[in-house]
């Protein structure tokens, strides 16, 4: 019932279907009028067209997350500060990868076991004795990733803009997505080492999009940086921590774990491997978990440097081994009481996905048929 097609949505909000499709296209996603809208797209559209929508999560699909949420409240007295989770977005070639690499290598002691050679979906760095978690997924996937994970796991978005190139289409998209997700934005004005850097132009262009710098009377931090020389990177990390203070990010490590899958794959010799970021509770080796269609007893946990750890705290990224399947990115992982429950939830989820696929293909072809008559 909460499933809605593009044309149905357009009818409901009294807009031509073409306008809705155009809007979606400008956000970088292709929809035809018969496609079902996902929850994130509905929320973004609602924001764009200035309407209120309430989306209802599918009962069966999110059953287990609901069960977790009802199980126990985080108790006020157990709440502790957790690391902020950061996603970096921006136009291609503006320096997302360079920035992530610079931050990671500058903060990881040389020669440390595991090193930083292998790719991880998320990593954590320390600044002023506090932790910051960065999500590091391939640049071209940043938008879809953000869409699939929604605001579930990102606390702050850093939009990187090259000072020698200014605001570009994907800069606008990044701003739109962050706004729609209601996530605070910090602007990293990158490539400041370049002769042709023009940070004032970047400020003016972003002010036009409603992202006005603090020194111009607005409320957005613009941090000049260079991913090449490292200039301004410490300032950027400090700005993140200040923003995190405003957000008052807290979690209860004494609860059962709730985490979000950032990345997953099937690895030779290791089986299904998932990188998750813990949102609440503590994740431990031996936990019985379910994540979408995957379940299992956590065999091992590896930190972002590939080192085995016993547990992972709220805000921390960790690689999970021991799952039955490869869970989808964006799935919520929770700890459950028994293997039986874990299997049951995973089975329900698989059944739900099958039904959804089925209804989608049959409904769409019926609609297309009636269009042709
Ligand atoms: P991405 O597509 O946003 O991930 O951008 P990359 O990190 O791949 O960077 C694109 C190009 O810009 C690469 O050739 C980088 O070496 C270069 N680059 C990135 N940051 C800087 C910077 O701060 N200064 C200079 N001079 N070049 C940079
Ligand atoms: Mg890149």
Automatic annotation (TrEMBL):
Chain intervals for the UniProt region annotation (G-domain): 84-232
Compartments it resides in: Cytoplasm
Residue ranges constituting the Tr-type G domain according to the UniProt record: 81-250
Chain positions recorded as GTP binding sites: 90-97, 136-140, 190-193
Function: One of the essential components for the initiation of protein synthesis. Protects formylmethionyl-tRNA from spontaneous hydrolysis and promotes its binding to the 30S ribosomal subunits. Also involved in the hydrolysis of GTP during the formation of the 70S ribosomal complex.
Similarity comment: family membership: Belongs to the TRAFAC class translation factor GTPase superfamily. Classic translation factor GTPase family. IF-2 subfamily.
Protein name, entry field: Translation initiation factor IF-2
Organism: Sulfurospirillum deleyianum (strain ATCC 51133 / DSM 6946 / 5175)
Gene that encodes the chain: infB
Positions spanned in the full protein: 307 to 679 of 888
């Amino acid at each position: 019932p909460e499933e809605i097609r593009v044309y149905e949505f357009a009818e409901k909000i009294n807009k031509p279907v073409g306008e809705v499709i155009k809007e979606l296209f400008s956000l970088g996603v292709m929809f035809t009028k018969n496609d079902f809208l996902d929850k994130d797209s509905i929320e973004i559209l609602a924001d764009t067209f200035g309407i209120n929508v309430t989306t209802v999560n599918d009962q069966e699909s999110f059953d287990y997350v609901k069960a977790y949420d009802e199980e126990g409240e985080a108790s006020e007295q157990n709440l502790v500060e957790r690391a902020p989770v950061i996603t970096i977005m921006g136009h291609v070639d503006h320096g997302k990868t360079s920035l992530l690499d610079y931050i990671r290598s500058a903060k990881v002691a040389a020669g440390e076991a595991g090193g930083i050679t292998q790719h991880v979906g998320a990593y954590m760095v320390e600044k002023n004795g506090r932790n910051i978690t960065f999500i590091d997924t391939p640049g071209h996937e940043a938008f879809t990733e953000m869409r699939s994970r929604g605001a579930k796991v990102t606390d702050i978005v850093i939009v990187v803009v090259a000072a020698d190139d200014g605001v570009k289409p994907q800069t606008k998209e990044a701003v739109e997505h962050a706004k729609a997700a209601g996530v605070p934005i910090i602007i990293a004005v990158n490539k400041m080492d370049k002769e042709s850097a023009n940070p004032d132009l970047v400020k003016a262009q972003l002010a036009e999009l409603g992202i006005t710098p603090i020194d111009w009377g607005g409320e957005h931090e613009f941090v000049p940086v260079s991913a090449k020389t490292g200039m301004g990177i410490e300032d950027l990390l400090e700005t993140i921590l200040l923003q995190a203070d405003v957000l008052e990010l807290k979690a209860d490590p004494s609860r059962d774990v709730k985490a979000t899958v950032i990345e997953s794959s099937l690895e030779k010799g290791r089986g299904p491997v998932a990188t998750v970021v813990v949102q609440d509770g503590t994740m431990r080796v031996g936990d019985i978990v379910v994540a979408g269609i995957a379940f299992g007893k956590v065999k091992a946990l590896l930190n972002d440097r590939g080192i085995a750890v016993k547990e992972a705290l709220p805000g921390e990224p960790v690689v999970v081994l021991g799952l039955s399947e490869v869970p989808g990115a964006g799935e919520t992982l929770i700890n459950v009481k028994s293997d039986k429950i874990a299997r049951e939830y995973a089975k329900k989820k698989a059944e739900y996905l099958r039904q959804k696929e089925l209804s989608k293909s049959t409904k769409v072809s019926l609609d297309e048929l009636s269009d042709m008559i």
